[in-house]
Amino acid sequence: MNLRTKLTAAVTLTFLAASALPASAGVFGKKKTDQTVTRKPTPAQNALIDKAILREAAVIKTLRERQPLVETYIQNMRPDPAMIQVPEMDAHYLTRINFGREITEVGYADGKKDSTGKFSGIKQALGGLAGLTKSLHLSYDEGGFVRMVVIDTNGPNGDAFDRQHYNFYFVRNDFLGTVPTVVFDVEPIKRSAGRFFGRVWVERNGGNIVRYNGDLAGEDKDRAEFYHFDSWRTNVQDGLWMPTASYIEESDPKSPAHVLKFKAVSHIWGYSLKIPNKDTDQTSLEVEGAIDTSQQAPDVSPLQAQREWVQQAEDNVIDRLYTAGLVDAPSDFDKTLSDLANNILAYNQIPTARPLKVRILLTTPLESLSIGNTILISKSLIDTTAIPTTDGAQQGANLNALLAFQVAHILLGHRVDTKYAFSDRLLFPSERAFQRLPMHHTNAENVEAAKKAMELLNAKDLADGQKYFSLYLQQLQAREKGLPELNKPQIGDGLLKPDGTFWMQAIVSKGPKLDNNDLKQQGAMPLGQYLRYDAWTDQVIQMHTTYEPLLSSRDKIPFEITPVYQRLAYWQPTAAPVAAPAAAPAPAADNAPVDNAPAVQPTQPQPTTGTSTPPQN
């Protein structure tokens, strides 16, 4: 399926009515084998439920005013003798959604079907969105697109989550991260398809629903039209909790090894897209050996004018990608990657008057690109290369290899089309950003850049890291057939050639042979391993997690979707920066690498707490 089709058709699954944990199953039935016993709420708990109902209506009102990006990535699974299950096929969908249009007053409660056999409420809630591709050999129903965002859209304003339609039963008090919650089981009074049936976590202080888990079948019986989901919300502003992530999975009842039929994850971001402040996008990095004459000479040379023109095109494209929600807001982690990219120049004694910058593509496919002197790397490339080691060397080496490929494009003059220096070229709707901004290089340019990248990585301080990226590419090669969508770039350059080999194939022979049974060897990590992002500001945030030791080869889940589980916290306003006293820079040798750069900090394998140290270059 091409990208144009995806943008108009495929986001339907983004909010499938489905959940990873059928928490409601067995809770409302005749027998309760769970140790948790539901009971009628106390007056204080009833007051909290009433507050949660009001807060849910406020969430719907806020959603109507927003047009965030919604991305769904699906993996269809098959049995594997060594690792239980591996992806057999995948699908990726991305679009920007106008929730004011999608949340309708036509509901699901009556379970009525139209002439096509689909639920009428589902059809109208989806508007013009078409059905999912059938390439996964699964019968995905369009139901629940909006319903992963709000619990019940059957009311006149899309807010039918109330006491007239639902019974509530107290389960327990619980903490999700640092947020105290009260857990309730929720049962529709009239058990009809399209009603939520499951469990909700209500934060005790403000009455906001921060997590809900179940399905939309309206009862504890499985229905083919709906799947199970586990939906999470994040405190993005004071008192405002917005949907940010959902996990969906269904088991294969015919599998004796309990292999999943499929699993999927949905992410929402871009709730508050703003034009970036250009001053915040400038790195303070100074590369030794570079001479900045821009403020010294009264005139501009023809070469300088050419580079300024290219810079203008670069700035226009980056700003447009940012306002479309595809690129992260400038962050400290961007500066970390920028330092690593500039170190590649320094190790190779390549002077520059224009330091390199790096930003993160917030989308899932494995891709990178260069626009002028700015390199973009997808979040999933960062996540899957973030191998935890004691010294951080493997993650650092992987990042160096990824960056070197795009650094090579820059050095070879493979630049962005300067037509984008004219601002009117970028005046088009955000949802058309992919069609209108193809940034990928040609096959010939990628071949040339791969050769140049190998030269850069042969520098004395970088050569030892090639063996790590070799393992990553070998692991990707082993999974590539089941992950075609993950390896299909949207606007940039992928890792694979059209023939299925890698652009940087020469690096594969630099490392040991991949062995999935060797627990001391890990080639790639699962998706979502290292970075998360603020759904309101679009800034990426480095995660700090406890190290989980591998117990068997089945714990290796490279490039796979994993369940969503967040340690929630209350929103805190950003503190105003405190100006540091001026200090004279220490002298350094020409072309020296930056040694005081912010550190990339992978989780380290320690037997107890798991700490973080920077990769050593």
UniProtKB/TrEMBL annotation:
Region of interest: Disordered: 579-617
Keyword line: Signal
Leader peptide range in chain numbering: 1-25
Protein name per its UniProtKB record: Uncharacterized protein
Organism of derivation: Granulicella mallensis
